[in-house]
Fold this sequence. Notes:
Two copies of one chain form a homodimer. By secondary structure, chain A is of the alpha/beta class. Chain A folds into two domains: 235 residues, Rossmann fold (3-Layer(aba) Sandwich), CATH 3.40.50.150; 43 residues, no CATH class. In chain A, a hairpin with a 2-residue loop joins β4 and β5. In chain A, α3 runs parallel beside α4. The longest helix of chain A is centred in the C-terminal third of the chain and has 18 residues. At the A-B interface, β5, α4 and β6 of A face β5, α4 and β6 of B. Chain A binds a DNA duplex through loops.
Amino acid sequence: MEIRTELYLGDCREKLHLLPDESVDLSFTSPPYADRRRNTYGGIHPSDYVEWFLPIAAQLLRILKPTGTFVLNIREKVVNGERSTYVLELILNMRRQGWLWTEEFIWHKKNCSPGKWPNRFRNAGERPLQFNKSRKFHMYQEAVMVPMGDWAKTRLRNLSETDKIRDNSKVGSGFGKNISSWLGCEMAYSTNVLHLATECSHKNHRAAFPEELPEWFIKLFTREGDTVLDPFMGSGTTLIVADRIRRHAVGIEIAPEYFEMVKKRFAGYQCDRKTYGAILS
Amino acid sequence: MEIRTELYLGDCREKLHLLPDESVDLSFTSPPYADRRRNTYGGIHPSDYVEWFLPIAAQLLRILKPTGTFVLNIREKVVNGERSTYVLELILNMRRQGWLWTEEFIWHKKNCSPGKWPNRFRNAGERPLQFNKSRKFHMYQEAVMVPMGDWAKTRLRNLSETDKIRDNSKVGSGFGKNISSWLGCEMAYSTNVLHLATECSHKNHRAAFPEELPEWFIKLFTREGDTVLDPFMGSGTTLIVADRIRRHAVGIEIAPEYFEMVKKRFAGYQCDRKTYGAILS
DNA sequence: GTTCCGCATGAATCGATAG
DNA sequence: ACTATCGATTCATGCGGAA
């Protein structure tokens, strides 16, 4: 089967209108947080954030299949010593749009940003929020199981806490690749807490999240040949993972330099793989 | 200094009125979640939860010192396939009461209860919410520092080898001094993500949280001789920890069997410790 | 070819300074 | 008074050069 990748250059508030109804199985995205990415999206002010995002959410609701899932990775910014409430208000407003707020996952960022302040600790958690159109959404829990056999149990018991966490993240990312090494292990279902580190210093690009994060959600909510959408493509992490594990993908990015970078990276990758990629702008 | 513990039997909606203004440094509590503890607080329906809790929050706002902190350990219940929104609405309404929503911590429950549902994973995370009256609250970050990661560990391990050699050539007194300084170097400030196991070792009852959870917040937000309040005392975990690390404590509990249990446990404990406990009902 | 160490780099946040 | 910008703080990570 050919795996098809579409890239759009432009503002997703416009480009999303080009996508057909009920055509996407999973949208995983990490939109610019409030007051971030000023050079691309202009740094949306916390007080304008909900109003800015709701039309995008409405389009995603239209584009998603009834069995599909929308995962929104976001975190409240601190404003004047308080956690902002725009994420709370966004959830409440998206429910009024017709979304179901199904679940809240927790991503523990092992390597969070540094800093020290007298009245606050470093923020090491982000909250991928799961939204659905229907209670009968597709979920493939077996695709993200973790080994808990005797071998793993005894080994984990003797390791330090940091090592345990690292093992968990390895399992999450390497399950498909290293299946043979886990043979004979007893497998357990995952929880809603993920432990991953962000990739720190890449050469050409900066990714907001590690490949393991979209990979986990793509495996959990889609199968081979399904379609994944990221309206805030950025450096293209979600799309590259989707292609690697054989899901169709659609990406939208407003910044030309990011768009060109992903386009190049994809062209080479697809050339090697002899797959078809529709690069549209 | 005498450590004083007060226990009240009754509904905290009434008993909180007995406590004086600005007399508490930290209130740490885990209220009954919606539809839980039906036999005591009547199993508050999710849609009534905010209305039920707001008068309690108002009392806590009155009782708390200006430099004090309120930590509310709560999690959205799943209702009809969706995460309930009463916690979101509670945060928004408490801000209208005058509370500052300072921070959202994440407690990762390492060994959470087993279970499997077709469209949901086990919940391994809770979100202790931090509220304050003022931006100038007390916080003692050094009291909860954590061991550093691998990079520093390996570096210090090598450093210690050379230092050991150097120390051996010197007088013996310097050895202990350096040990303590190494220990200091191996510690880092915490993040807002806590990794604690849930407790399962107790005999008579199941506590809602392990002692480490209130202990962490009590150490972070109070010093010896400060006062801790738990208006939903339950099995008394918060109060027992507070007494152990020498903080005054006030507990309120509506269920007589819980109240009596804590009273007994406390009486014996305090008898051993020769401290004074004011048991009031 | 290993292992080891140095170094740059962050979805951060506060407080001070400047317009 | 209110907002924008900047420096200081801090630590996990992975790359690349060195031993």
